[in-house]
Write a structure and sequence with these properties.
Blueprint (H helix, E strand, L loop, with lengths): L9 E8 L2 E8 L2 H15 L5 E3 L6 E4 L3 E6 L3 H5 L2 E7 L2 E8 L1 H17 L3 E4 L9 E6 L7
Parallel strand pairs: 1-4, 2-9, 5-7
Antiparallel strand pairs: 1-2, 3-5, 6-7, 8-9
């Protein structure tokens, strides 16, 4: 998708940030934020086991090719939640695992952004325990990482 100024476009960037490898999910509209929240809720309620967010028509990925959200079937996957897999020199895939409770917690964090209706962001992973920091930015100025 070429129109990065469209408010329904979800920009998802992978880059080396201040706290290490980072994925920033840049959302400008209530509709797009609600859509992501619904995906988290569906994963938390086991309506689906995984979702390739990179297949969404409104998603525009930078510096990686695929972003797959998965419900962890065991605590080992949930304890090391984010994995970057390089399938070839030109194909990077990120898998993000979470428990059903973890997906529910992520949805609750997004709900706070919807309620406030102000520009802001939420970190959905932890820089101390996860190997990739995932941040959702809502109505913040778009950046080029």
């Amino acid at each position: 998708m070429n129109n990065d100024t469209n408010s329904d476009v979800i920009l998802i960037s992978y880059y080396e940030g201040a706290y290490g490898p980072t994925i920033r999910i840049d959302i400008q509209s209530n509709q797009s934020l609600s859509r992501l929240m619904r995906i988290f809720l569906d994963l938390s309620q086991l309506r689906m086991q995984e979702f390739a967010i990179s297949t969404m028509a409104s998603a525009n990925l930078t510096n990686f090719d695929s972003f797959i959200l998965c419900t962890a079937r065991n605590n080992k996957l949930a304890s090391n939640r984010v994995h970057l897999i390089q399938k070839s020199s030109h194909n990077l895939t990120v898998y993000w695992y979470n428990t059903t409770d973890g997906w529910r917690d992520c949805a609750d964090l997004l709900d706070g952004l919807i309620i406030n209706q102000e520009p802001g962001h939420q970190y959905l992973t932890d820089e101390d325990t996860d190997n990739i920091l995932i941040e959702v930015a809502f109505r913040e100025k778009r950046i080029n990482p």
